[in-house]
Amino acid sequence: MGTRCLLVLLLVLLVLKCDVQGDDMARQDEATGPTLLSQMQESLYDYWGSAKAAAQDLYKKTYLTAVDEKIRDMYSTSTAAVRIYTGILTDQILSMLSGDS
Fold first, then answer.
1. Which helix (H) or strand (E) covers residue 98, if one does?
2. Percent of the chain clearing pLDDT 90 (strictly above)
3. Is 99 helix (H, G, I), strand (E, B) or coil?
4. Residue 85: is its pLDDT beyond 70?
5. Where is the signal peptide (predicted)?
6. Cα–Cα distance between 69 and 57 in angstroms, integer?
7. What is the pTM of this model?
8. Cα(51)–Cα(57) distance, integer angstroms
9. How far apart are CA 60 and CA 35, in angstroms?
C-alpha cells in the first residue's frame, strides 16, 4: 500500500511540475508575440474547423433513415458473427493449451 501511495504522490508532483513549467513557457510566448509556427497552427485549425463544419452540414443534408437502419442492422449482424467465431477460436485455443484431445 505504501508503494502505491508513493507512486501516486510522484505522479501528482510530476503533473504539477509540468503544469507550472507550461505556465512559465506560455508567459514567455505571450511576451514574444505569435511565431510563424503558431500562426500556421492556427491557420490549420481554422481550415480543419471549416472542413469539419462542411462535412457535418453535408451529412445532415444527405441523412437517410433507411440507410441508417440498414447500417445498424449490418453492424449488429456482423458483431454477432464475430462474437460467435471469437468464442469458437477461444475454445479451440484453450483446448489445445490444456492438452485435451
1. helix 65-98
2. 22
3. coil
4. yes
5. 1-22
6. 20
7. 0.35
8. 10
9. 38
Within 13 Å and on the Cβ side, how many CA atoms surround 76?
5
Position 88 pLDDT exceeds 80: yes
Average pLDDT over residues 10-30: 67
The 8-class DSSP code of residue 62 comes to: T
**In sequence order, which residues have a C-beta less than 8 Å from that of residue 38 and are 6 or more positions away?**
29
Residue-averaged pLDDT of the chain: 80
DSSP state of 31: H
Question: What are the C-alpha distances in Å from 91 to residues 2, 81, 94?
Answer: 40, 16, 5
Mean pLDDT of 2-14: 75
Write down the residue that cell numbers 503558431 correspond to: 38
Q: How far apart are CA 71 and CA 88, in angstroms?
A: 26
